[in-house]
Amino acid sequence: MLAGPAFAVMLLVTAYPILQAVYDSLFDFRLTDPGNRSFNGLQNYSVILTDRIWWTSLAVTLFITAITVAVELVLGFGLALVMMKALRAIRPVVRAAILIPYAVITVVSAFAWQYAFALDSGFVNSWLGWLPGISADTDWFGGTWKALFVVCVAEIWKTTPFISLLLLAGLAQVPEVLQEAAKVDGATWWQRLNRVTIPNMKAAIMVALLFRTLDAFRIFDSIFVMTGGANSTETVSFLAYRQTISRLEIGLGSAVSVLLFVCVVLICALFIKGFRVDLASARGE
Amino acid sequence: MSRREKVGWLIGGLAIVVYALFPVAWIVSLSLKAPSDIANRQFLPTVGTWENYRLILTGEASELFLPALRNSFGICLIATAISCVLSMFAAYAIARLDFPGKRLILSTALAVAIFPVISIVTPLFNLWRQIGLYDTWPGLIIPYLSLTLPLAIWTLSAFFREIPWEMEQAAQVDGATSWQAFRKVIVPLAAPGVFTTAIIAFFIAWNDFIYGISLTSTEASRPVPAALGLFSGASQFEAPNGPIAAAAVIVTIPVVVLVLLFQRRIVAGLTNGAVKG
Fold first, then answer.
1. pLDDT values of chain A reduced to their tens digit, one per residue, 285 residues
2. What is the C-alpha to C-alpha distance for residues B56 and A275, in angstroms, rounded to an integer?
3. ∠ CA B204-B210-B211, rounded to 5°
4. DSSP class per residue in A130-190
5. Contacts (Cβ under 8 Å, ≥6 apart) of A29
6. How many CB pairs under 8 A join A and B?
C-alpha cells in the first residue's frame, strides 16, 4: 500500500510509453500528416535495418561505449586507490573535487570541452601544437574520429569520478585480513591487486560495469551539444530523437526507439547470463 | 607509510583535484573573457570582464535566461519533493514490512533506471500535446519523477535499513504516544537519509536535457540545460560563447555549493544505494 504510489508512477511513466512506442512503430505515422495514419506492420523496421544510417549510429554508439567504459574503469580504479590512500588532511578536498564532475550537468561539461577543442577559441590546439603530428590548426570537429575522441574525453571526465566512488566502496569491502596474509606470504603489490583485491570486489566492479555500459549506450546530451550528429557522429539515441522530435516521423522514430530498447535489454541479458552479474549479491542480500 | 610514499599519495590526491577542476576553471575563465579575447586561444582572459554576466542577467539575453532559470529551480524542486515523499513511503515499506512485492518494487526501480529515456519521450510528446501538458511545468515534473524515483527508492531503502526501528517501540514502552515516538525517535534518525536522497534526486533532475528539449517549446517551461543546448549544434558558428559560458557557470553554482556543503553525505548516499541498496 505504502509503496503503491511510487510503483504506479514509475510504471505509468515508463511502461505506457514503451508500449505506445511499440504500437506506433507498426504504423506509417507522421505528425506532419497525422490524418494519414495507416498500419504497415514491420515495414518501418525493414526500412531502418536496411539503412546505412542505423548501422553507422549503432557502430558509433558501441564504439563510444567500449572506449569510455574501458578507460573509466581503469582510470576510476586508479582514482579509487589514490583516494583510499589519500592522507586524512586532504581527504575532504579530494572528495569534494571528485564530486564536482559528477554534479556538473552533462550539457555544461559538453560545452566546456567543445570550447576547449574549438578551432577558433580553444586552448587545446595552442597547447598541443608543439606535439609531433598535431597541428595547431586541428579541426577537432571536422572528422568522425576526431570528434568522437573529444566526445569520449568529455564523457570520461564526467563519469570516471562516479565509477571511482563505486569502486572505492568495493575496495572497502575487501577483508583486511586477506591483504595482510598475502603480505606475510611475500606477495608483491601487483600480485595482491590481481589475486586478492580484484577478485574480492568483483561484484562492485561488475555492477559499475553494467550500469556504466547501459548509461554510455544511451549517450545523447554530449552528441547534441558537441557535434549535432554531424560527420557521422550520430548515436542511436540521437537518431531516434532526430526522427521523432525534429522530423516528426513518429512511425520510423518509434521503431528506432524500440530497437534501442531491445539493445539495452540484450546488454542486460548478456551481463546477467554471460558474466553472471548477481545484482542480489551486490545488494548484500 | 614512509615519507616518500606519503608525498606520492599527496601528489596523487592533488592530481585528482586538478583533474576535476580543470574544465570548470576553463568555463569560468571563458565566461570572463571579452568577445575580442575569446579568439586568442589562451586559457585565461587577458582582461577580466563581467559583461557576459550582465548580458544574461540584466541585458538583452536575460529574457531567455532568467525564465529558464526560474523553470529549472521550480520544476526540479517540485519533482525532488514529490519523489522524496513517494520514495519515503516505498522505502519505509521495503525496510520495515515483509510483503511479497518488495523485490518487485526494487527490480522495477532498477528497470526504470536503465530505461532509454529517448524511448519514453516520443509517446509522451504526442500524449502531452493531446492533453495540454506540452510546454507546462507538470509536463516536465511527471517524467522527472521517472528519473528521480528509482534512485531515491534505492538510496532511501539503504538508509532506512540501517535505522534501529525497535527504538520506536522502546519509546512507547516508556510512555510516549505513537505519534510522539515517531516524531522524537524516528524522524531525527531518518532525516539525514531523506535529505541526502533529496540532494541526489535534485542533481538528477537538474541534469536532465532530453525531456527539457523535447517537451517544451517556449520559456514558459524550458529549463536551463535545454535553453543552452538549443544555442548549439545548428548555430555553432555564431554561437555566443561568452554568454553561454556565463550561463553554464551560473547553472553550475547550485550543484557546486551542494557538493561543498554536503560532500560526505552525497558520497555515502551514492555508494550505499549502489552497493548495499
1. 677 888 888 888 888 999 999 999 999 989 888 878 889 989 999 999 999 999 999 999 999 999 999 999 999 999 998 888 876 778 888 889 999 999 999 999 999 999 999 888 888 888 887 777 777 778 889 889 999 999 999 999 999 999 999 999 888 888 888 888 888 888 888 888 888 888 888 888 888 898 899 999 999 999 999 998 888 899 999 999 999 988 999 999 999 999 999 999 999 888 888 766 655 544 433
2. 50
3. 80
4. TSTT--TT--TTSSHHHHHHHHHHHHHHHHHHHHHHHHHHHHHTS-HHHHHHHHHTT--HH
5. A37, A249, A250, A251, A254
6. 299
CB atoms within 10 A of CB A91: 14
Q: B174: distance to nearest CA of chain A, Å?
A: 28
Which residue(s) pair with A28 in the sheet? A38
Which helix (H) or strand (E) segment holds residue A102: the answer is: helix A91-103
- Interface probe for B, chosen from A1, A12, A14 (most Cβ of B below 10 Å), is A14
Cell of A89: 588532511
Q: Is residue A90 classed exposed, middle or buried when 0-12, 13-18 and 19+ CB atoms within 10 A define those classes?
A: middle
Cell numbers that stand for A196 in this block: 586478492
Q: Residue A7: closest CA among chain B residues belongs to which residue? A: B105
